[in-house]
Design a protein that fits this description.
- GO terms for molecular function: DNA-binding transcription factor activity; transcription cis-regulatory region binding.
- Belongs to the LysR transcriptional regulatory family.
- InterPro entries: LysR_HTH_N (IPR000847), LysR_subst-bd (IPR005119), WH-like_DNA-bd_sf (IPR036388), WH_DNA-bd_sf (IPR036390).
- It holds the Pfam family LysR_substrate.
- It is rod-shaped and about 100 Å long.
- Helix content is about 45%, strand content about 20%.
- The chain is built from 14 helices and eleven strands.
- Strands 3, 4, 5, 6, 9, 10 and 11 form a seven-stranded mixed β-sheet that branches. Strands 1-2 form a two-stranded antiparallel sheet. A two-stranded parallel ribbon has the order 7-8.
- The longest helix has about 30 residues, at about 80-110.
- The relative contact order is 0.12.
Length: about 325
């Protein structure tokens, strides 16, 4: 034992991490090819590298290990006794790496075989169907499940591992999640044509809207959060419902005024089953976001779906 090693210091062959002391997989695969073919040039061709590059890699491996591995001659390349031993060890390492790679591929295949999406109601009903149809053409073997709920429920499902990717429409990103804006939306006030607001000549003031009982989504929904934040508070709901479709149906039926996404009421406005009521002093705009647990960027099918949400309208493919 050297004086340095007696003092607890690493010697020249023990210093550094294992990665610095052991040749890389590429060098080991090259040595195995040389042993099998008996030719450095043949090994280089098999691995798709030049012969000078192969020679350089073998020399680097020999310097790293401190022993000669290959005797080169005009008749070919022959392993030294040390080279035979190192080749046997390399074969075990390469086989272990192949098993590692196969296991990793199995994990990727299992990940890619399913996609669990959680989305707030407006996005789930009016945007996600088109994205999922496009995803199906690209990943036909991926089974997709959709969990629809309000923005708070979406956050909870992501944080508990029940969903791989989420979509929300509130005023802020729920704690514990990262996000990216995928679209913009606007909330509008709507009523049935026979409601007095449908015939008013002056735009509706924010104060009047805030003091009027409305057909509303439940607390925790993105629509409710945006409306509450913009108006600084709301009157007691006329009716409280758990889906955009239910709110829209109640408004069409004449139960009272509602505030809904433009995405949700295009057909009803076009057919005059609902009438849009102009606002005087507030714009109810909001961002639609894709969300995922902090530090866990979407991968696999979730990443593919996220990319589809960023295509311009009419370009989903």
């Amino acid at each position: 034992m050297s004086k340095r090693e007696e003092q607890g210091e690493p010697g020249p062959h023990t210093a550094g991490s294992l990665a610095h002391r052991v040749p890389d997989l590429g060098a080991m695969e090259l040595l195995l090819a040389v042993a099998r073919l008996g030719s450095l040039g043949g090994a280089a061709r098999e691995l798709g590298i030049t012969q000078p590059a192969a020679s350089s890699r073998i020399r680097s491996m020999e310097r790293q290990l401190g022993v000669a591995l290959v005797d080169r001659s005009p008749r070919g390349s022959r392993l030294t006794d040390a080279g035979v031993l190192v080749t046997d060890w390399s074969r075990q390492v390469v086989e272990a790496a192949e098993a590692f790679d196969a296991g990793a591929q199995a994990l990727r295949d299992r990940r890619d075989s399913r996609l669990r999406v959680a989305a707030s109601m407006t996005i789930a009903e009016y945007l996600l169907p088109g994205w999922l149809v496009a995803l199906r053409t690209q990943l036909p073997d991926t089974a997709v499940s959709l969990l629809a709920g309000n923005s708070a429920a979406v956050a909870q499902r992501l944080l508990t591992g029940e969903a791989d990717l989420g979509f929300v429409e509130g005023v802020s990103v729920p704690p514990g999640l990262d996000s990216t804006v995928i679209a913009h939306d606007r909330l509008i006030v709507v009523t049935a044509p026979r409601h007095p607001w449908a015939r008013r000549r002056r735009p509706l003031a924010a104060a009047e809207l805030a003091s009027t009982p409305l057909i509303l989504r439940e607390k925790g929904s993105g629509t409710r959060q945006v409306l509450d934040a913009a108006l600084g508070g709301l009157a007691r709901p006329l009716i409280e419902l758990s889906s955009t479709t239910a709110v829209k149906a109640a408004a069409v039926g004449g139960a009272g005024p509602a505030v809904l996404s433009e995405l949700a009421v295009g057909e009803e406005l076009a057919t005059r089953r609902l009438v849009s009521v102009p606002m005087a002093d507030v714009t109810l705009a909001r961002d639609l976001r894709a969300v995922w647990p902090t530090g866990h960027r979407p991968t696999g099918p979730a990443r593919r779906l996220l990319s589809l949400t960023r295509l311009p309208p009419g370009r989903v493919q």
